[in-house]
Amino acid sequence: MLSLPKEDANMTKRVPIGVSARHIHLSAEHIRILFGPGYELQPIKPLSQPGQFAAAETVAVVGPKGRFDKVRILGPARKLSQLEISRTDTYTLGIDAPVRESGDIAGTPGVKVIGPAGEVQLEEGVIVALRHIHFAPEDAARWGIRDKQMLKVRVGGERAVVFEQVLARVSDKFALDMHIDTDEANAAGIKTGDYGEIID
């Protein structure tokens, strides 16, 4: 798993940042409905987290006021389908999506998802993802960080900013990476590959 070089880790709590554009996770059942029986997603790019990938396939999502075409699917299939969008995206779709941790979709709005072979009406599953950092256990232990802890992260540059309420997620399935959405990145002039520093 990716970890910071030891010399960097000992000096500062630096974390790489990934900017997440709107995307959707789909269950195996919904992949079948949208693309046809037996269909398997085709990976085109590995993501920062082990085993996860951007798929070649896209779908359209339709809300009460608008729609987005070519929304990228991220694989592999999940237990439940989930659309992750920015706050700006919610205005386009006409959906009041809450800020939630990934996977916490109970009581969230739904959206229509359209694929080449069919469509699905999600009853819930639309969220604005809570900013978070994935930690491998060794990285979290080295810095004394526990799972579900809320952190502060400083990012320098011309539009320097301190992000509060950054959720720590610790798992042996993770590699060190901070995830923010496009609204947050654009406001602070951040791009994928930049670094932030965890502060007390």
Mind telling me the C-alpha Rg? 17 Å
**Residue share in helix:** 10-25%
Q: How would you describe the shape?
A: globular
In DSSP terms, counting alpha (H) and pi (I) runs of 4 or more, how many helices? 5
Distance separating the two termini: 26 Å
What percentage of the residues does DSSP assign to strands (E)?
35-45%
Uncertain spans: 1-10
Largest sheet, described in full? 9 strands, mixed
The overall average pLDDT, rounded, is 94
Derived structural class:
alpha/beta
Query: Secondary-structure element order, as H and E?
Result: HEEHEEEEHEEEEEHEEEHE
Can you give a write-up of this model?
- The chain is α/β, with parallel strands linked by helices and 200 residues long.
- Helices cover 18% and strands 40% of the residues.
- The chain has helices spanning 6-11, 28-35, 87-93, 137-143, 182-188; strands at 14-20, 23-25, 43-46, 53-62, 67-75, 82-84, 99-100, 111-114, 119-122, 126-129, 132-135, 150-155, 161-170, 177-181, 195-199.
- Strands 2, 3, 4, 5, 6, 7, 8, 9 and 10 form a nine-stranded mixed beta sheet that branches.
- The radius of gyration is 17 Å and the shape is globular.
- The relative contact order is 0.23.
What brief labels describe this structure?
six-stranded mixed β-barrel, 5 helices, 200 residues
Give a quick rundown of the structure.
This protein is α/β, with parallel strands linked by helices.
Task: Describe how the helices and strands are arranged.
Blueprint: H1 6-11, E1 14-20, E2 23-25, H2 28-35, E3 43-46, E4 53-62, E5 67-75, E6 82-84, H3 87-93, E7 99-100, E8 111-114, E9 119-122, E10 126-129, E11 132-135, H4 137-143, E12 150-155, E13 161-170, E14 177-181, H5 182-188, E15 195-199
Parallel strand pairs: 1-14, 2-5, 6-10, 7-10, 11-13
Antiparallel strand pairs: 1-15, 2-6, 3-4, 4-5, 4-8, 8-9, 11-14, 12-13, 12-15
